[in-house]
């Protein structure tokens, strides 16, 4: 492939990686990871609410990795409540999983920025070390894509398997009991999915540029080409 086309491909991949880093950083700070509704089962059972009457007992909840808000409905109108995971909810949530999600988000941002830097370096400079060449580009893309997948798996398990929304809804509730009525992942969660797909696309762009993976040195070129096989 001509050098100009390779340069263009690396520029596109670098911009995509940088955009993913910014998108992930923005997603971490929002409360748009999960949205749902919560049913006040205690209040609904007290008045034997059915059909349209249930709407008076269905509140809302949304949260991210650090904070969120809920609106409890127990027949007397909405009561908004702001909460924070640190330190308020650490006793009731799977803290190890939650901290791991935040950690992998940080790693994703770091390696997305590293990948963007090396993509642009390979576009406008000349590789002089192995990690500046194709091997490094595959490596950064693979790590970033893996982190994105781990974030989605861990956070999904925290929400679905550990019933995170119900634990949050029943936080500091001594009299009323709440149950998840509906629940769906929101924009920030899907941003992580898009970033994972982008890093996978970057690996395909590297392959499209003409670099094989894995990189194997031919036997007959042993001492002649040496380290040149790791570059381009």
From TrEMBL:
- Residue ranges spanning the membrane: these are 97-123, 135-155, 189-209
Provide a GO biological process annotation. Answer: sensory perception of sound
**Predominant location category:** membrane
Q: Which domain of life is it from?
A: Eukaryota
Q: Which keywords does this Swiss-Prot/TrEMBL entry list?
A: Membrane, Transmembrane, Transmembrane helix
Q: Name one GO cellular component term.
A: membrane
Q: Which Pfam families match?
A: Clarin-2
Q: Where in the cell is it found?
A: Membrane
Matches recorded under PROSITE patterns: PROKAR_LIPOPROTEIN
Instruction: State the annotated membrane topology for this chain.
Output: Multi-pass membrane protein
Family per UniProt?
Belongs to the clarin family.
Q: What is this protein called?
A: CLRN1 protein
Lineage, please?
Answer: Eukaryota, Metazoa, Chordata, Craniata, Vertebrata
């Amino acid at each position: 492939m001509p050098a100009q086309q390779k340069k263009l491909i690396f520029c596109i991949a670098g911009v995509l990686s940088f955009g993913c880093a910014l998108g992930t950083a923005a997603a971490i700070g929002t409360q748009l990871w999960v949205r749902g509704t919560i049913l006040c089962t205690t209040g609904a059972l007290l008045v034997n609410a059915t059909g349209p009457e249930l709407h008076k007992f269905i509140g809302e909840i949304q949260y991210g990795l650090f904070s969120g808000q809920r609106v409890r409905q127990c027949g007397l109108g909405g009561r908004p409540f702001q909460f924070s995971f640190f330190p308020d909810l650490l006793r009731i949530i799977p803290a190890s999983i939650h901290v791991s999600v935040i950690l992998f988000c940080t790693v994703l941002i770091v390696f997305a920025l590293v990948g963007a830097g090396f993509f642009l370096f390979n576009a406008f400079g000349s590789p002089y070390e192995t990690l500046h060449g194709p091997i490094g580009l595959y490596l950064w893309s693979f790590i970033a894509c893996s982190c994105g997948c781990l974030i989605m798996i861990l956070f999904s398990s925290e929400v679905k398997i550990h019933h995170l929304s119900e634990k949050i809804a029943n936080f500091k509730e001594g009299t009323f009991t709440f149950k998840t009525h509906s629940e769906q992942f929101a924009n920030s969660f899907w941003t992580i999915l898009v970033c994972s797909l982008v890093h996978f696309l970057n690996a395909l762009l590297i392959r499209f540029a003409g670099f094989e993976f894995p990189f194997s040195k031919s036997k007959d070129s042993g001492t002649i080409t040496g380290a040149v096989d790791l570059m381009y």
